[in-house]
Design goal:
This protein is mainly α. It has one domain (3-328). The protein contains 14 helices and two strands, in the order αααααβααβααααααα. The chain has helices at 3-23, 26-33, 39-55, 57-60, 63-69, 78-101, 108-122, 129-160, 164-201, 215-233, 237-246, 252-271, 278-289, 296-328, and strands spanning 72-73, 126-127. The chain has a two-stranded antiparallel sheet.
Length: 329
């Protein structure tokens, strides 16, 4: 295994770990923010459910993985494609860690899409229109849908007039479902990256195998599960603080409604093969479940970070791929 091939698999693993560390905590932010669970206990649930969410990809298929794999055209040049992969992963890790430092949840889906496209253009590649449109539609649809579903779920659950104990039990279950959906959605993206890496490491940029029953894909599922779970187990307290406490004053009903809404939206988009932002979906579900009763300053900070994600990751990946590819080739 040469240096470039080895570096690309290490960087993919780093992105998965960072995702589990900085992105997965969104799924448990509400259950901690409402006071139903302590952070440490919630992290255990998130890690466990993320693990099974990734593994479930084997049974529901790999349509999201295929969208990620087909996002960029590599023109049969495996070496340039590996550069594209490395530079994109570096940009995603750098941006995610910078946002985590300030406690701001960002979309690694946005970062991944922008990074891959920026790197590809940097080495004179192209972005494929159909997968890119599918990804962009999914990113927009999931956020709008999350607000609407959050409102509807709140109206339904509030009419049931559940007691405190039942609300707490419901939120614990819904937090697990939210974590499960995160694993199923984001796990597919990373399995797609591993499938892409497997093809490129063999010098084949034209034929990318997405056979979920194949040995490489099963191995990728296991690797993604373990690495993401390890990242989640590290905590992510900054993100939980911002989403669970900074966005709104949550009670068990608000939290459960947001979790259920995000679970339904993420699962719906996953089945359609749309790579979506679990961060955006969850935070928009909170806005819907709280009926707009949120801290506008905190939400404004998140929106600014979301807006900056695409141009920053695109520019960083473009610059890295242009410079490094010219230097080493």
């Amino acid at each position: 295994m040469d240096f470039l091939t080895f570096s690309s698999v290490i960087l993919i693993s780093a992105v998965i770990f960072v995702n589990g560390w900085t992105d997965a905590p969104n799924s448990i932010a509400t259950v901690v923010g409402s006071g139903v669970m302590k952070l440490r206990s919630a992290v255990v649930i998130a890690a466990f459910c993320n693990f099974f969410g990734v593994l479930t990809v084997v049974f529901i298929g790999g349509r999201v993985s295929e969208t990620v794999c087909r996002l960029v055209a590599y023109d049969g040049d495996a070496v340039s494609a590996l550069w594209i992969l490395c530079c994109a992963m570096l940009s995603v890790v750098a941006w995610s860690l910078a946002a985590w430092f300030f406690g701001i949840p960002t979309s690694e889906s946005h970062a991944l899409i922008a990074g891959l496209c920026g790197s590809a253009i940097g080495v004179r590649g192209t972005a494929e229109t159909r997968p890119l449109i599918l990804a962009l539609v999914g990113l927009v649809l999931s956020t709008v849908l999350a607000v609407i579903v959050g409102i509807l779920v709140y109206r339904i659950i509030s009419k049931l007039k559940l007691g405190n104990k039942k609300c707490a039990a419901l939120q614990k279950m819904s937090a697990g479902l939210s974590s499960f959906a995160h694993g199923a959605q984001d796990g597919q993206k990373f399995i797609g990256l591993f499938a892409l890496w497997a093809a490129l490491s063999q010098g084949n940029a034209a034929d990318i195998s997405l056979d979920i029953d194949g040995n490489i894909s099963v191995l990728a599922v296991c690797i993604c599960s373990v690495i993401m779970t390890a990242g989640t187990a590290c905590g992510g307290g900054r993100i939980v603080q911002k989403v669970g406490f900074g966005m709104a004053s949550l009670d068990a009903v608000d939290g459960a409604c947001a979790d259920i809404a995000s679970f339904l939206c993420i699962l719906f988009c996953t089945l359609l093969g749309m790579p979506v932002s679990t961060t955006h979906t969850k935070t928009c579900a909170i806005v819907g479940a709280c009926r707009g009763r949120v801290n506008r300053r905190t939400v404004g900070e998140m929106v600014v970070a979301w807006v900056l994600t695409v141009p920053v990751c695109f520019a960083c990946s473009f610059a890295l791929s242009s410079l490094l590819c010219r230097y080493f080739n």
